[in-house]
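quick one, 209 residues, struct below
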Amino acid sequence: GLAPRLEQLRYDKGQMIVQRRDQDQGVYLLLEGVLLANQYARSGREVGYRRLNPGAYFGEISAIDGLPRSVNIVALEDARIARLPQRLIHELIDSSPRFMRALLEDMAALTRSLTDRLFELTAISVASRVDIELLRMASAASGDGKSAIINPCPTHAELAVLLGSQREPVTRELNRLANLDIVRQTGRSLHILDMEALAREVERIVGEP
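---
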């Protein structure tokens, strides 16, 4: 079985799990907590790539090509993680067509997701990017398709990092959505009260459903 070969790890909120240019080439599976893939410019500006929720994994690119890590991975909440050594990943790739197919499908999905984000960063306003990101997170959260609860919701500053923006325009858009009764914040939870209305906001501004 795989269990004896997995290393169980725990990280505190704010702790760096993987650092850009690290040589470690294991694959990490997130069991509990929320993580952020990011990078820092020379100016000190933080650039976020994606949030990782329980069930997500990372490190597969370095495990495959043997090159150093391309991003930092930071714990946004206390996290529990299982680490699979590179040797195990190579064994699974060589021996399991199902594992290989799942890995390729996930990498294709990641490529599509990052392509969408690149388009959004270069062609769409901050307000629209906020709406799109909330819709993504709401769709991933459990709900009835009409409403959802994002918990924990990123802070306004965390959303700004993820969206390549500053905190102020993110706050303005969230306040606007709250005034329209589309969202409501309660502590660390963000209630998406009307997903159809949120989708209409995206369509109205961006021109795409």
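The chain is about 45% helix and 25% strand.
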